[in-house]
Design goal:
The protein has a single domain (about 1-130), classed as Rossmann fold. It has helices spanning about 20-30, 50-55, 70-85, 110-130, and strands at about 10-15, 35-40, 60-65, 90. Strand 1, helix 1 and strand 2 form a beta-alpha-beta unit. By secondary structure, it is α/β, with parallel strands linked by helices. Helices cover about 45% and strands about 15% of the residues.
């Protein structure tokens, strides 16, 4: 895995929710397509599988901690990436999870957490890039 972007022309991508599913596959696809990719996730312990896949293929991919529900985590990740490679060209807002059940059976805290994770961060993360 390269330690830095190979040229100033190489595009840099951030993908949220990369520990599994669509985010995982999107991160690998972008890296395979030549993007220097930051696969971000709340829990870095879940990043070993994508790190291993990237290393095996020699992909330009790094794993970074980013919790989309916390402003500090968002700002720290964005500043770290910009400090590391100087730019961010592509943002894939993918983080989320399913909350199943009848609305009236869900606790307000569950609904708020769902909203924070799947909706509110769509505004937080792009604003941190400004």
């Amino acid at each position: 895995m390269p330690s830095s972007i190979s040229s100033s022309n190489q595009k840099v991508a951030i993908v949220t929710g990369s520990s599994s599913g669509i985010g995982f596959e999107t991160s690998l696809t972008l890296a395979r397509s030549g993007f220097f990719t930051y696969a971000t996730m709340r829990n870095l312990g879940k990043g070993e599988v994508i790190k291993s896949a990237a290393a095996k293929e020699g992909l330009p991919l790094r794993v970074a901690q980013l919790d989309v529900t916390e402003d500090r985590s968002i700002n720290d990740a964005v500043h770290s990436i910009i400090s590391d490679v100087g730019k961010i060209d592509v943002l894939v807002n993918n983080a989320g999870y399913g909350l199943n059940g009848a609305f009236e059976d869900l606790a307000m805290e569950e609904i708020k957490a769902q909203f924070e994770t799947t909706t509110w961060y769509l505004f937080r993360l792009p604003c941190a890039l400004c």
